[in-house]
Design goal:
This protein is mostly helical. Helices cover 78% and strands 0% of the residues.
């Protein structure tokens, strides 16, 4: 790292921190979010380490298959806008799990809260792993433990200063910087390769003993890659962090526009990461895959701009981790703690304590033997969240009062359990999420009552 790298990195971090502090104060005066703020909240959490560092990592190994994170996220936001904004807003709830509790009872809502929060917690681990890949470039001698705790501290500050709508304002700036950074990466790869045809040529010359079809969206197998897309769709719809943007909007129209903006803007971010991953595979075939993007940024970009890009990637990771932590804290404060204690746990102070506890618990687990495949954690997280509440949530919207709560309770248990079992016991030629969702659907259909139940 040269002095120019450090200047670019420092100036960018200071600018984003300043905006976070300003936005935290500004939202106290303006309690409602417009469509751009809604998009900022959604993208601020959705586009992070998995969309950048993780995408380049997976592209290094499987090429175009890595696009499913951002492509699937765009499809998910489109479905969210078209089908789910109205029922979410109409529910009058502040959390997805309170919708489940209202429909199926407190016991079912509590179970869903715990399992859904576990899924989000796993994705925080993937963001911390991505953050350490960036910190290692700037401070290569820093220990893993210290890198993790520095990341957690920054995530805490990110969300405490801004809150939900404040993170939306920072999310907009983050997306602008990410677009510039990832487009610059992609353009530079094409320039170094001699244009698109030259890039195709160097990819074809990659040593490829496994015969990976680098230009196929289904390089890992149709079942696996379609499962990855499906995970994104059900995971986004079933995650509190993204729903908070919808709940925060000043109107249903603004909420829908915000989700549509996200659907349009998220998919292109992954293309730059794919180009970088494949280029680095061709010129640096022996590197650790998760460092593909950060190594490209430091070695091939002008130092000052490289510092700006590294800061942007770091903030992208922080925003996703912070948004997930905020979503979990909101669920714990509103749904879990009142159920356990029969008391109102309070407001902002309790939420901040929970955020700190969540992030530092994730740090402790990240130091264990959990592996380094960032997108694997992210897809697993989405799948668990989706398998837990996607089907019961849909039934609450479109079959309200018709599904027996005992069956809903069973569906919420069996869905994620099957995903975990078949995820560890890898005997299926497709993503185990399909089994989890199918089982949840069958149980819910079996529980449909001919006469509506009173809730």
């Amino acid at each position: 790292m040269t002095i120019q790298h450090m200047i670019g990195l420092t100036v960018t971090l200071v600018a984003i921190v300043a905006l976070s502090i300003y936005s935290g104060k500004a939202v106290k005066k303006n309690k409602e979010a417009n469509s751009w703020i809604v998009a900022g909240v959604i993208m601020g959490t959705l586009v992070g380490g998995s969309s950048t560092v993780g995408t380049a990592q997976l592209a290094y190994n499987y090429g175009m298959s890595a696009w499913w994170w951002t492509l699937g996220a765009g499809i998910a936001c489109l479905i969210l806008a078209v089908m789910y904004v109205k029922p979410l807003r109409k529910s009058g709830s502040s959390t997805l799990l309170s919708i489940i509790s209202t429909e199926y009872g407190t016991k079912t809502g509590f179970l869903a809260s715990v399992l859904s929060s576990l899924g989000s917690f796993i994705n925080i681990i993937s963001q911390l792993i991505a953050a350490t890949a960036i910190i290692a470039v700037v401070f290569p001698k820093l220990s893993l433990a210290l890198s993790l705790f520095i990341s957690a501290i920054f995530m805490t500050l990110y969300i405490i200063f801004g809150g939900t709508k404040g993170s939306g304002m920072v999310g907009i700036l983050k997306m602008v910087l990410l677009y510039v950074a990832m487009m610059a990466c992609g353009i530079m790869v094409l320039c170094f390769s001699g244009g698109f045809s030259g890039f195709l040529g160097i990819v074809e010359r990659i040593e490829n003993p496994e015969n990976v079809p680098f230009f196929s969206l289904f390089a890992r197998g149709i079942g696996t890659d379609l499962g990855a897309c499906f995970s994104l769709i059900v995971g986004v719809i079933a995650t509190q962090s993204y729903a908070q943007g919808i709940f925060a909007a000043k109107s249903t129209k603004e909420a829908k526009k915000g989700a549509l903006l996200s659907a349009l803007l998220v998919p292109p971010v992954g293309i730059g990461g794919i180009l970088v991953g494949l280029y680095m595979r061709s010129v640096h075939p022996g590197i650790v895959a998760k460092t593909a993007l950060t190594m490209f940024v430091t070695e091939y970009m002008p130092p000052l701009f490289s510092g700006v890009v590294l800061a942007t990637l770091f903030i992208a990771v922080l925003g996703t981790g912070a948004g997930l932590a905020l979503g979990i804290a909101t669920v714990l404060r509103n749904d879990v703690i009142p159920t356990l204690t029969r008391k109102n746990p309070g407001g902002v102070t309790t939420e901040r304590i929970l955020i700190v506890a969540i992030l530092f618990s994730a740090c402790l687990l990240s130091m264990g033997p959990l592996g380094d495949t960032i997108l694997n954690f992210a897809f697993m997280s989405m799948g668990l969240r989706g398998a837990t509440i996607f089907v019961p949530l849909c039934c609450a919207f479109w079959y309200s009062g018709k599904v027996d709560r005992r069956y809903a309770f069973s569906a919420i248990i069996l869905g994620p359990v099957l995903v975990l079992i078949f995820g560890v016991w890898k005997v299926l030629p497709f993503d185990p999420l399909f089994i989890g969702i199918f089982a949840s659907c069958i149980i819910s259909l079996a529980g449909i009552r001919k006469t509506p139940q009173h809730t």
